[in-house]
């Protein structure tokens, strides 16, 4: 049930045409009042289509079975796995997580991703995907209880996984149902043990669904942490406000725009609303105050 | 000599301070025991190279004892049965003991003067202590470990200890807050890196508060200095608040 990748360039050409059409309609109007902004680059909502980065998928079509079968795939489904090998030393961890770690370590060493066997040269990086970590499906009650039985299993798992990833040619992406975890301390620790942390916040069921600010989008994307590896600095982007949208064929992530406040009655109440929603916004021209005090112009 | 320095970060990543102290003490000719829990050896090595120090060379000449926590953990869980004479420093992970004695023994043995050592003063660096809580150590066990290290490294061996902890404002991690507050009370020097309250800025990455304890016994005022900083590829520039190069 994976979405079909867009392997040909026809779709990209479509995107390119659209963008070109839009661009040709803009005249180089010289600005009269906002002339200070004349020389700033135009704000682009989506990354420019001229640089090809990553892969594109069509969410309305499924990936062909031939493509799936041509790739070496390992899966781990906890209910079908053999019980924890008793000769392994005590791990002091939830057994579901322990079995998953054993399985990952076995694949890494058998397929040669840790470089241990000079004969087996992996041609690729091992990509690992783990779904709903911390949920009851893994035998962990961290998502359904305020005082979980073994809150450290999850963080221990992440630490050992980190060790396995650092020692091999592999990368891992994990989804965690953070909205179910009552104990916020655990989420803080999970964040500290991860290299990159991205949060998706859907508008469904929240008051933001009807907020006119967000009418074009389905949710927000929060980048909580980016990796700072092998360097003192990290690549922080200028944009902090991202929203996502699920279109018919595409899932896109765009910069969030605050529409101009053109209403006649700019009452105190609506200003508070906007200020509340704008708490996380920063403009492209520089940093605005986003702390507890809002600057009201 | 004999000082305990606490590195603390809030809303930002204070690891640049760890890299600084590592290269600083190695260049000064001290014997360093680095308990690196969160990142791999190559990460520190590459950054140290940018700061002008070679960790591999320091290890080879016996100046640096490097405990790579991630590797040690894998060895413990996936490796062969350990030899009785060489317990793993991270033994508490397998639940056989709930204190950090093995880790302290590792530190003590690494920094005890060996025959033929000509290094100036020993030094213990830990990155970062908050990870031990995530691995199942109780806050009391971590505090005990630090206490033993201070007694050994600062008092007995007349060396220095530098430790990094994370803290968050409005944090709900009570164990971590307990650890951080307790360590603050016992530190001679606190370097607190904070993200700006006004949010992200390209030219000023954060502010650093330097709190110097004049005396732990008498109730003298601590000396507090605040600077802002910007991290670059090979160094960090510090400047007075509001006087970033971008503004001047």
UniProtKB/TrEMBL annotation, chain A:
One of the record's GO cellular component terms: elongator holoenzyme complex
Listed InterPro entries: Elongator_complex_protein_4, P-loop_NTPase
CDD domains xref list: Elp4 (cd19494)
Location(s) in or outside the cell: Cytoplasm; Nucleus
Keyword DNA damage: no
Entry keywords, A to Z: Cytoplasm, Nucleus, tRNA processing
Pathway(s): tRNA modification; 5-methoxycarbonylmethyl-2-thiouridine-tRNA biosynthesis
GO BP annotations, alphabetical order: tRNA wobble uridine modification
The keyword Nucleus is annotated on this UniProt entry: yes
Function (record text): Component of the elongator complex which is required for multiple tRNA modifications, including mcm5U (5-methoxycarbonylmethyl uridine), mcm5s2U (5-methoxycarbonylmethyl-2-thiouridine), and ncm5U (5-carbamoylmethyl uridine). The elongator complex catalyzes the formation of carboxymethyluridine in the wobble base at position 34 in tRNAs.
Family (UniProt): Belongs to the ELP4 family.
Name the record gives this protein: Elongator complex protein 4
Classification lineage: Eukaryota, Metazoa, Chordata, Craniata, Vertebrata
UniProtKB/TrEMBL annotation, chain B:
Chief place of localization: cytoplasm
Domain of life of the native organism: Eukaryota
InterPro entries: ELP6, P-loop_NTPase
Pathway: tRNA modification; 5-methoxycarbonylmethyl-2-thiouridine-tRNA biosynthesis
CDD domains per the UniProt record, alphabetical: Elp6 (cd19495)
Any single Gene Ontology cellular-component annotation: elongator holoenzyme complex
KW Glycoprotein (keyword) present: no
Membrane-traversing stretches: none
UniProt name for this protein: Elongator complex protein 6
Top-level taxonomy: Eukaryota, Metazoa, Chordata, Craniata, Vertebrata
């Amino acid at each position: 049930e994976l979405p079909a990748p867009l392997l040909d360039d026809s779709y990209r050409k479509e995107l390119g045409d659209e963008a070109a059409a839009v661009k040709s309609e803009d005249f180089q109007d010289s600005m009269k009042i906002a002339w200070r902004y004349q020389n700033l680059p135009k704000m682009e909502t989506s990354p420019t289509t001229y640089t090809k980065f990553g892969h594109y998928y069509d969410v309305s079509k499924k990936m062909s079975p031939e493509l799936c079968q041509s790739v070496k795939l390992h899966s781990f489904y906890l209910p079908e796995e053999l019980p924890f090998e008793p000769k392994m030393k005590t791990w002091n961890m939830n057994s579901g997580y322990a079995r998953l770690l054993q399985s990952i370590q076995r694949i890494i060493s058998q397929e040669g991703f840790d470089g241990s066997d000079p004969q087996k040269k992996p041609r690729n990086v091992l990509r690992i995907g783990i779904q709903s970590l911390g949920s009851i499906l893994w035998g962990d009650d961290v998502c359904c209880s305020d005082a979980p039985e073994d809150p450290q299993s999850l963080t221990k798992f992440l630490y050992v996984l980190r060790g396995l990833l650092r020692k091999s040619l592999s990368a891992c992406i994990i989804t965690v149902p953070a909205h179910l975890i009552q104990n916020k301390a655990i989420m803080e620790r999970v964040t500290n043990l991860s290299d990159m942390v991205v949060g998706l916040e859907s508008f469904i069921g929240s008051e933001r669904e009807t907020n006119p600010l967000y009418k074009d989008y389905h949710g927000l994307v929060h980048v909580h942490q980016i990796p700072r590896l092998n360097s003192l600095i990290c690549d922080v982007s200028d944009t902090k406000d991202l929203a996502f949208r699920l279109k018919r064929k595409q899932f896109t992530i765009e910069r969030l725009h605050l529409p101009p406040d053109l209403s006649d009655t700019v009452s105190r109440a609506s200003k508070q609303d906007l200020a509340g929603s704008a708490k996380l916004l920063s403009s492209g021209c520089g940093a605005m105050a986003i702390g507890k005090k809002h600057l009201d112009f | 000599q004999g000082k305990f320095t606490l590195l603390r970060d809030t809303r930002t990543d204070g690891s640049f301070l760890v890299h600084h102290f590592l290269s600083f003490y190695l260049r000064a000719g001290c014997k360093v025991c680095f308990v690196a829990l969160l990142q791999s050896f190559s990460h520190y090595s590459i950054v140290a190279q940018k700061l002008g120090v070679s960790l591999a060379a320091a290890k080879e000449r016996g100046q640096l004892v490097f405990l790579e926590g991630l590797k040690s953990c894998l060895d413990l869980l996936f490796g062969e049965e350990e030899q009785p004479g060489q317990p793993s420093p991270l033994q508490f992970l397998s639940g056989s003991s709930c204190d950090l004695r093995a880790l302290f023994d590792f530190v003590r043995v690494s920094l005890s003067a060996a025959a033929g050592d000509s290094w100036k003063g020993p030094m213990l660096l830990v990155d970062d202590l908050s990870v031990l809580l995530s691995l199942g150590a109780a806050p009391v066990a971590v505090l005990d470990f630090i206490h033993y290290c201070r007694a050994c490294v600062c008092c007995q061996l007349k060396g220095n200890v530098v430790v990094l902890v994370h803290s968050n404002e409005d944090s709900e991690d009570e164990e971590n807050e307990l650890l951080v507050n307790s360590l603050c009370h016992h530190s001679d020097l606190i370097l607190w890196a904070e993200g700006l309250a006004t949010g992200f800025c390209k030219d000023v990455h954060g502010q650093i508060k330097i709190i110097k304890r004049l005396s732990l016994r008498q109730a003298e005022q601590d000396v507090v200095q605040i600077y802002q900083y910007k991290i670059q590829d090979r160094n960090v520039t510090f400047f007075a608040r509001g006087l970033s190069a971008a503004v001047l």
